Amino acid sequence: MSFLFSINAAFLIAVLAGWTFVEFFLRMSPVTMPVLFFGLLTCILLEKK
After folding, report:
1. Which residues contact 28 (CB under 8 A, 6 or more apart)?
2. In the prediction, which pLDDT does 18 show?
3. Which of 5, 14, 44, 45 has the most C-beta neighbours closer than 10 Å?
4. Residue segments in the chain with a per-residue pLDDT below the cut of 50
5. Confidence at residue 28, expressed as pLDDT on a 0 to 100 scale
6. 20: alpha, beta or left, given left = phi > 0 and alpha = psi -120 to 50?
7. Which pairs count as long-range contacts for 44-47, CB under 8 Å and 24+ apart, including other chains?
8. Three-state DSSP string of the chain
9. What's the pLDDT score for residue 21?
10. pLDDT of res. 38
């Protein structure tokens, strides 16, 4: 449920800002890409133990 809410919230932000998908991705990637990277790294490190 919270995942769907975050998708809808991201869509709402993009619509209100007048961004296309590509522009939204480029503007948000400085925050989302490091979070994705370190989140995946954390999962990998925890699964190795």
Report:
1. 10
2. 86
3. 14
4. 1
5. 87
6. beta
7. none
8. CHHHHHHHHHHHHHHHHCCCHHHHHHHHHHHHHHHHHHHHHHHHHHHHC
9. 82
10. 96
Tokens of 15: 């619509």
What ranges do the domains of the chain cover? 2-48
Q: Are 19 and 27 in contact (CB under 8 A)?
A: yes
| Beta carbons within 10 angstroms of residue 28's beta carbon | 14
User: How long is the chain?
Assistant: 49
What is d(CA 22, CA 25) in angstroms, rounded to the nearest whole number?
A: 5
Model confidence, pTM: 0.60
For residue 9 the two structure tokens come to 């919230």
Q: Which residue has the tokens 């400085």?
A: 30
